[in-house]
Write a structure and sequence with these properties.
This is Tail specific protease domain-containing protein. The chain has about 450 residues and is of the alpha/beta class. The protein folds into three domains: about 50-120, no CATH class; about 130-235, Pdz3 Domain (Roll); about 245-380 and about 415-440, Alpha-Beta Complex (2-enoyl-CoA Hydratase, Chain A, domain 1). The chain contains 15 helices and 16 strands. The chain has helices spanning about 1-20, 25-45, 50-65, 75-90, 95-105, 165-170, 180-190, 195-200, 245, 275-280, 290-305, 325-340, 355-365, 425-430, 435-440; strands at about 115, 130-135, 135-145, 155-160, 160, 210, 220, 235, 250-255, 260-265, 310-315, 345-350, 370-375, 380-390, 395-405, 420. A six-stranded mixed β-sheet has the order 9-10-11-12-13-16, sandwiched between helices. A four-stranded antiparallel β-sheet has the order 5-4-6-7. The termini are far apart.
Length: about 450
């Protein structure tokens, strides 16, 4: 405090003396010195995070609150890893320490438990990219107008480092139940410059992408961070867009395909107006679709239309609450028992996670469904029912599981489909959904 007062006094004296300068210099001097004083005073008010205290708090709270955090590694492993973060903290900034803590948490095997470092991501340090991992590799599907020439390009490297190496490093921030998790989450981490910088793949904002274009030609492309929004976003446009991709952001939707006698049900979110009213304050309930209305429409269609196949598509469903899906599937199973000539197909994907997996297991338990698509991102038996607490100094939120869901006698890492079909960029760019094409032929 004494040093601060002395520097403030010296700055004030400098400002006073600048007034005696020539008129043309006075205003500039006042402005510069005023800015210096403002910057200095504010820098003194920035509180340095007490990470030792936060790490001790994390060690205690997570081990006590989690349903059973030490199923894959021991408590001794946990404390040893956190002490290593403490030892290394002076070599990292706050964001780096948060990532280091997440690496520790991710290694203990619960994909629902995590440090929410996303809360301190600098939005000005994000590459304007929306990526998808196809069978052939990592492709650019969205970017800004300024970078639109790279739409549809495959990313091969960053500053000379291969995508495989980058994938391996970014995967340490994920609880890798299976490779489906990697394919889903690594494309979301890739645009974060702070993350790439933490692993040493970039320095500052220098990003040189190695790309392969639609004709197979390779090139280098310099990209800078920028905000991407609805106004400046550009999308790779395939020849056409299958129904599932057109509607992947809606909660649930149905589509009766009369030409093939297929009734397609897309269930993207285990949530609804009814669940919002039941489990939350209901303030946003009127903005959400009613699952009761959707369910009534579905069973009215099932009773009134000629149907040979029902498709229950949960490939984009990341979870929510399994209860409404379970009740719906129980009702659907009773309908199918009365109509054994109708075949049920369940579509799985890398995004199928948490409550959506529980609903998939409901289908496996109650029906004779055929499962098609990709492996699920989560495990049939898994921790869940997430709660959270905040670290006292950094204020970072930590999610943890308070319950264990057992849906299978086998301890498997994923729910695998009967018929595996990984999406390819070749199919995507011509507007083909191989899963639905296969179902139509059965």
């Amino acid at each position: 405090m004494k040093a601060k007062k002395q520097i403030e006094r010296l700055l004030f004296q400098a400002i006073q003396s600048s007034i005696k300068q020539r008129p043309q210099m006075k205003n500039l001097s006042l402005l510069i010195l005023g800015l210096l004083l403002f910057q200095f005073c504010n820098s003194q008010n920035i509180k340095k995070v007490d990470w030792d205290s936060d790490i001790d708090y994390l060690a205690k709270e997570l081990s006590e609150k989690h349903y059973n955090f030490f199923t894959e590694k021991s408590k001794d492993d946990y404390y040893k890893a956190l002490n290593q973060v403490k030892s290394n903290k002076d070599n990292l900034d706050d964001f780096g320490i948060a990532l280091n803590l997440q690496q520790v948490i991710a290694s203990f095997g619960d994909s629902h438990t995590r440090v929410n470092y996303g809360e301190i991501i600098d939005k000005e340090q994000v590459l304007p990219l929306h990526l998808y991992w196809f069978k052939e590799g990592l492709f650019v599907l969205h970017t800004t107008k300024e970078n639109s020439e790279i739409l549809g390009h495959q990313i091969l490297s960053v500053n000379g480092t291969s995508i495989k190496t980058i994938q391996d490093s970014l995967s340490t921030l994920i609880t890798v139940d299976n490779q489906a998790m990697v394919k889903f989450l690594v494309p979301k981490l890739f645009p974060l410059l702070q993350v790439l910088n933490y692993f040493g793949f970039v320095e500052g904002q220098k990003v040189e992408l190695g790309l392969k274009d639609l004709e197979g030609n390779t090139k280098k492309y310099i990209m800078k961070p920028a905000m991407m929004n609805r106004q400046n976003r550009k999308m790779f446009l395939p020849n056409s867009l299958p129904f599932c991709f057109k509607n992947e952001r809606v909660f649930f939707v149905d589509n009766y395909q009369a030409s093939d006698n297929i009734y397609y049900l897309q269930y993207n979110k285990c949530w609804s107006k009814e669940l919002e009213l039941k489990y939350r304050n209901g303030k946003n309930a009127n903005k959400l679709p009613s699952f009761k209305e959707f369910e009534d429409k579905v069973f009215e269609t099932l009773e009134s239309k000629p149907i040979q196949k029902i498709v229950f598509d949960i490939r984009f469903n990341g979870g929510g609450s399994s209860s409404q899906g379970t009740y719906f599937i129980e009702k659907l199973a009773r309908f199918l028992d009365k109509n054994p000539e109708i075949n049920l197909y369940v579509v799985l994907g890398r995004t199928t996670f948490s409550s959506a997996i529980l609903n998939a297991m409901d289908c496996k338990r109650l029906t004779k469904a055929t499962f098609v698509g990709e492996e699920t991102g989560g495990k049939p038996n898994h921790f869940g029912e997430v709660k959270s607490f905040r670290l006292p100094n950094s204020k970072l939120r930590v999610n943890y599981s308070s319950k264990y869901f057992k849906r299978s006698d086998e301890d498997v890492k994923t729910l695998a489909p009967d018929y595996y079909m990984e999406p390819s960029f070749k199919d995507y760019k011509i507007g083909l959904d191989p899963v639905m094409e296969w179902i139509k032929k059965q």
